[in-house]
Give the backbone structure.
Amino acid sequence: MVAVQQRHATTGDGARPAPGTTILRTAGLTKRFGRLTAVDGLDLEVRAGEVLGFLGPNGSGKSTTVGMVLGLVEPTAGRVELFGRDLAADPDAVRRRVGAIIETPAFYPYLSGRDNLRALARAAGGVPPGRIDALLRQVGLASRAGSRYKTYSLGMKQRLGIASTLLTDPDLVILDEPTNGLDPAGQREVRELIPLLAREGRGVLLASHLLHEVEQVCDRVAIIRGGKLLRAGTVADLVRGLAGGASFEIALPGSAGDQERAVGILRALSFVEQVAADDGRLTVVAPEERGAEVNRALAEAGLYAAAIVPRRSSLEDVFLELTEPETAEDTKP
Ligand SMILES: Nc1ncnc2c1ncn2[C@@H]1O[C@H](COP(=O)(O)OP(=O)(O)O)[C@@H](O)[C@H]1O
Ligand SMILES: [Mg+2]
């Protein structure tokens, strides 16, 4: 009986939490190192079936947060709740349902990928025999499963790392900068795996400083800087909340004087929020439906745009607005 329960807990073969259930919650989570507050009152939530992008520049406190969620770093204040239970009260029971890659995982260089997974499975206990080959297929390593680890590319090594975190069939997977150090092809191989984990009903916490990575694979994003949560929501919600929300790229042939004149004319329009000029190209922040009026105002002054291209805001715009102060020249007085 005890053995059966243990097996159930380590392999997670019970039902997954219902999609949308909060499986990780941090409340007021705080970590100080001496005088430095690395994580500052952080409230985060990861739900079953979603990838949460935990986005912030280097040094913003992501890895420290991950360490606290995994019980490797002791919080100074605040709480971590996994699957509705306090991590501090029941660390082992809840940690068994979490798989994580926090650095490039350590494997035996002279063993094959498959034998490395076998060794880890033996150590974890309770891994069904068929799972190793199923995981190797899932991460695209089936054809190289018998090759020595040391012959793998970095992307293959990282994919084997992801397979290793899935041995115990965790409900929550934590990936801290999983594409660090990979070439573009390797990054793509790893990235493509991430949404699949969520489709299996797991929750995924993806810590990354790479905007486009987070934008590509995440359902929701939490933006952190200086240990503080700046914003959390879906990419679409965050972009919609931006000032202006849309902009136009205008290609304007002509002299520098013409461009200066164009900037003046555009800034005078009541619906224009910002104008920036850069070597024959103007960026105008204005509502998407005002493009024709922008065009007309320029044409009436004898300035003919070669192109006016509406540009939808991206997560990058949100990130820049949150993390960089606007420069005085670029902002309408
Ligand atoms: N063990 C530690 N002792 C002292 N300072 C630390 C320690 N770990 C991290 N820090 C500091 O905490 C801040 C956040 O670091 P970290 O969580 O690694 O950020 P990120 O993962 O977002 O790059 C950094 O300023 C870092 O130097
Ligand atoms: Mg880090």
